[in-house]
Amino acid sequence: MVEILTSQVVSGLATGCVYALIALGFVLIFKATDVVNFAQGEFVMVSGFISYTLLIRGGLPYWLVLVLTVVASGFVGVALERVVVRPIMDAPIFSIVIATIGASTVLRSSAGILYGYDVLPLPTLFSKDPVRLGVLTFTAMDAGVIGSSLAIMLALYLFIKLTKTGMAMRATAQSQTAARLMGVSVKRIFSLTWAISAGIGGVAGVLIAPIIYLDPNLGFIGVKAFAGAILGGFGSIPGAIVGGMLLGVLENLSGYFFNAGIKQVSTYILLILVLVIRPSGFFGAAPIRKV
Amino acid sequence: MSATWRARLPGVAVLVVAVLLLFLPRVADNYVLYVMTRLFVYVLVALGLNLLTGYAGQVSLGHAAFFAIGAYTAAVLAERWQWPSLLCLVAAGVFTGAVGYLLGLPCLRLSGLYLAMATLGFTLIVQEMLLQLAVLTHGSEGMKVAPASLLGLTFDSDTRKYYMLFAVTAAMLLFARNLVGGRLGRAFLAIRDNERAAAAMGVNLARYKTIAFAISALYTGLAGALSAFIVGFLDPQEFSFFLSIQFITIIILGGLASLLGSVLGACFLIFLPELLAGLDVWQALVYGLIMVMTILFMPFGLSGALRRYAFRWFGIGSEPMIPRRLGH
């Protein structure tokens, strides 16, 4: 009983880590540019297909595929920012949201035209055989996904805290005007932020696509990641990580205790309850009113 | 053009469109009429959502749920207890409005993205409830709905359905117009623009926000009920969060805080896929591209663009003022 439970928690944590990575992408873009990018999930889908093409049709080694996929996904992010978002930065926030939804429709249907709507197999680096460690039972895949996600998060943290570019990103998030006055090229930071967010989404794609499925609708995982980011407090980086992981674990546990239908809904019931008690999520500051 | 003539032009245009729509069934085939009836349903939803989101500034992704609640309320009342159609419609609207009021209460503390997410959660929960409450809703099998009838007249042909929807939509449009021009509309706009200033001017925030939720839900529930009678079949899969996103797309493409925008946005969403139907697999791609282009060139929606150019080129109306932020 305990073993089943712990294995459910660990595999939930693995999915939760992927949610957390995508949620991180949402939050990074939101903090830097005030834009909510609803095409965030499509980065996951696009990078899934890129890695499929390179790996199965191109026959490249796995590590090279990983690097190329993340770079390519980053370029997709920059392209999206330049073409769709930058021209309408002065428009109402929700117009920008709808523009990104339109862009995700374009990406999704392009993938459908190129690859069809059947589920494609994607091999994983890690084996799915169970490993036992005391009361803990998990697969190498769970451990690999959790490990890689945490490594990415740590690398991102160090980049933002220690490098000069990272400092410029933080400055831009605090005040675009002040950052510009200090000689930061805010436009370049915007592009960089989109590249990083899309790159992280790319990692998430390579990690999750072999676990669940690879088809043009993979991008809808972004909705769950968004829920995770809201749960943690939208705009908070630790919030995105904790919220994403919590969502993954909870979803898995309720899938174990209840039927599949309840599993899908339980997370949203929790979400509404949390929001009623804490209207800006776990880590969210009270919204700053810009009058 | 004289000044009075210019001021009257929008009113004249509305009258001309209304007369043309009245005589449409004489010339159009059944398919066109069916598409038009669906358009009217979407106009009703867009009016309701625009009252809440465009005017009162409360973003909702919960309108697919209201639509579903209205549709199923009417269908269940008609099937189980054989209520007359008119009563079903009224009950569906009132019940959905009450649900909207109740949803509005916990949502008072939320705004912006958090409100969007909570209402999105509501949509997903209601959709699951439709499946779980199979005793009433027949679950995933779906539910048949008999055509509406009033005083012995059955609305079973496309022409009759068209006129039923035309009448209801025209009445509700007029109602919305009076609403936004009156005390309630001014209170909504004040809340949207600045909650603190509105409260300081004596607008009871909690009261007007929940009223906005209730009225918005009433419109959407009524639209859902009408849609149930037109289509004749309810499939729970249709009331997914996509539908909510479609609804919000309508009012943003059409124009926030604009009745004209609600109508134009619904036209965009209904007619464009019909026009692109021949494109087969390319349809979604082209649709998405047009959507992005529309926002890129008309960030304040179709009605915002129309008003701006009507003013700049012909001096009709006034330059539209549209706020950048909704909520916070």
What does this structure look like?
The complex is a heterodimer of chains A (291) and B (328). With 291 residues, chain A is mainly alpha-helical. Chain A has one domain (2-277): ABC transporter involved in vitamin B12 uptake, BtuC (Orthogonal Bundle). In chain A, 73% of the residues lie in helices and 3% in strands. Chain A has a two-stranded antiparallel ribbon. Chain A is globular and about 60 Å long. The relative contact order of chain A is 0.20. The mean pLDDT of chain A is 87. By secondary structure, chain B is mainly α. In chain B, 75% of the residues lie in helices and 2% in strands. Chain B has 14 helices and four strands. Chain B has helices at residues 3-27, 30-55, 63-80, 85-107, 112-132, 134-137, 158-181, 183-193, 195-200, 205-231, 241-254, 259-275, 283-297, 301-314, and strands at residues 143-144, 149-150, 153-154, 233-234. Chain B has a two-stranded antiparallel sheet with strand order 1-4. Chain B starts with a helix and ends in a 14-residue tail after the last helix. In chain B, 48% of the residues are buried. The mean pLDDT of chain B is 87. Classes of the chains: A mainly alpha (291), B mainly alpha (328). At the A-B interface, helix 4, helix 9 and helix 11 of A face helix 5, helix 11 and helix 13 of B.
Topology of helices and strands:
The complex is a heterodimer of chains A (291) and B (328).
Chain A: H1 2-33, H2 40-57, H3 62-85, H4 93-115, E1 130-133, E2 136-139, H5 140-162, H6 164-174, H7 176-181, H8 186-208, H9 221-232, H10 237-257, H11 260-277
Antiparallel strand pairs in A: 1-2
Helix pairs in contact in A: 1-5, 1-8, 1-9, 1-10, 2-3, 2-4, 2-8, 2-9, 3-8, 5-6, 6-8, 9-10, 10-11
Chain B: H1 3-27, H2 30-55, H3 63-80, H4 85-107, H5 112-132, H6 134-137, E1 143-144, E2 149-150, E3 153-154, H7 158-181, H8 183-193, H9 195-200, H10 205-231, E4 233-234, H11 241-254, H12 259-275, H13 283-297, H14 301-314
Antiparallel strand pairs in B: 1-4, 2-3
